[in-house]
């Protein structure tokens, strides 16, 4: 969910004050989780908390910038990246996204055959 200002700007994460016009006439708007990968990086050296989650040189943490179809750009973890390059269509994997992990993206349609 994001907020849309009466001036037309869509903000994600949601805001109480529009950074473009400083207006406060904002309404909730569902942004969806589809977009295109803009950039991606693999981090082999991670913080101790990420190392406790299993990330490191043997299992790099992959983070990407995604331009959502709705407009805003967001940063999130990207999984199963072997065939992903900037421009690839991705979508949020809602089963892996949570407040601790943040948004987790995968190639669009890649999760359609999950049986969990
Ligand atoms: Zn505004």
Mean pLDDT: 88
Helix residue percentage = under 10%
Low-confidence runs = 112-116
Query: What percent strand?
Result: 35-45%
Strand order in the sheet with the most strands: 4-5-6-8-7
In total, the number of strands is: 8
Q: What are the main properties of this structure?
A:
single chain; about 120 residues; mainly beta; OB fold (Dihydrolipoamide Acetyltransferase, E2P); three-stranded antiparallel sheet; elongated; binds zinc ion
In short:
By secondary structure, the protein is mainly beta.
Structure description:
- The chain is mostly beta strands.
- The chain has two domains: 1-30, no CATH class; 34-107, OB fold (Dihydrolipoamide Acetyltransferase, E2P) (Beta Barrel), CATH 2.40.50.
- 4% of the residues lie in helices and 36% in strands.
- The protein contains one helix and eight strands.
- The strands form two sheets. Strands 4-5-6-8-7 form a five-stranded mixed beta barrel. A three-stranded antiparallel β-sheet has the order 2-1-3, with no helix packed on it.
- It is elongated and about 50 Å long.
- It starts with a strand and ends in a 9-residue tail after the last strand.
- It binds zinc ion (ZN).
- Zinc ion is lined by residues 5, 7, 9, 18, 20-21, 23.
